[in-house]
TrEMBL record:
Bilayer-crossing regions: none
InterPro entries (alphabetical): Acyl_CoA_acyltransferase, DUF4081, GNAT_dom, UCP21603_acetyltransf
Molecular function via GO: acyltransferase activity
This protein's record includes keyword Acyltransferase: yes
EC number: 2.3.1.-
Keyword NADP: no
Name assigned to this protein: GNAT family N-acetyltransferase
Annotated Pfam families: Acetyltransf_1, DUF4081
Keywords linked to the UniProt accession: Acyltransferase, Transferase
Length: 281
């Protein structure tokens, strides 16, 4: 099989079985890659980019998703250097580099001088998992959202994204695309919220899922309702719903400096299993 320098080449549909075997070596940490592979069959036209594989003696040992996000998968420092060298042969097209800390650190160490100053870097973000009953009772008011909730849900999603990322998802004419993404999550049954007298007071979404895990994102409570425990019981409810109906393990990653969020997840019963890092452009 023809490979490029350092054994790196783009993967395709013929590689799907071997790729899934690779991601399943750490299926919760690799849930994003697993989800993308299963939904695109590793076809570039569906990926909106490529997945690169690194082969040693004809065996796939690591991979790297290269789309809107650059995500190393099962990569050692040596694998990350090989992926960085390939990335340097093309201009930066990704908006983030995200994944296990050690691989992201090596990737960025080789790409930084060519890819320019990032908008923000977040190192050593705790990656958390829950694969059992939560430690607190779930909020019975948390439910799946419907399209009828969009009047409350969409502004909350915009507010959460802006607060978390530092820029609005509507910036640069992105409102239509972002609304379509929120609507897609609602249609899949991956959006959850609690409403008090018609007002959204807690929300969270599943970003991606595989047979092994579901990754939660977008956890948010309005500023004037924080400190009431809504996120603790809300996340317990989301975890129960997800584990019963989507995947057996719930995962997420959180900024190291976000102590309130880390306390929330610890109270629910989430446990740290890895550290992620994110470089944002």
């Amino acid at each position: 099989m023809l490979t490029t320098r350092h054994g790196v080449r783009p993967l395709g549909a013929a590689d799907l079985h071997e790729f899934l075997a690779l991601v399943e070596l750490d299926p919760v940490v690799n849930v994003f890659a697993d989800y993308r592979a299963r939904t695109t069959n590793l076809e570039p036209r569906w990926l909106g980019g490529e997945v690169w594989g690194r082969f040693v003696d004809g065996r796939l040992v690591a991979a790297c998703h290269v789309g809107a996000n650059l995500v190393p998968i099962g990569a050692t420092a040596d694998d990350a250097r090989a992926f960085a060298e390939r990335a340097l042969t093309r201009g930066r097209s990704v908006s983030t580099i995200v994944g296990p800390h050690e691989a992201v650190e090596v990737l960025w160490g080789h790409l930084a001088s060519s890819w320019g100053r990032p908008r923000e870097t977040r190192w050593r973000q705790p990656h958390l998992e829950l694969a059992r009953t939560p430690d607190v009772a779930p909020d019975p008011g948390v439910r799946r959202t419907t399209r009828a909730d969009m009047g409350e849900l969409y502004p909350a999603c915009v507010a959460m994204y802006t607060e978390e990322v530092g820029v609005s998802p509507e910036q640069g004419g992105g409102a239509e695309l972002y609304r379509a993404r929120v609507t897609q999550l609602v249609s899949r049954g991956w959006s959850f919220a609690r409403f008090d007298d018609g007002r959204l007071v807690f929300k969270a979404e599943v970003a991606c899922a595989s047979p092994h895990a579901a990754q939660v994102q977008g956890v948010w409570v309005p500023a004037d309702r924080r400190g009431e425990g809504l996120a603790v019981t809300g996340m317990a409810a989301v975890a129960e719903l997800v584990r019963a109906e989507i995947a057996p393990t719930v995962s997420l990653y959180v900024n190291e400096w976000n102590e309130p969020a880390r306390r929330t997840y610890a109270a629910v019963g989430f446990e740290e299993t890895a550290r992620f890092s994110t470089v944002m452009f």
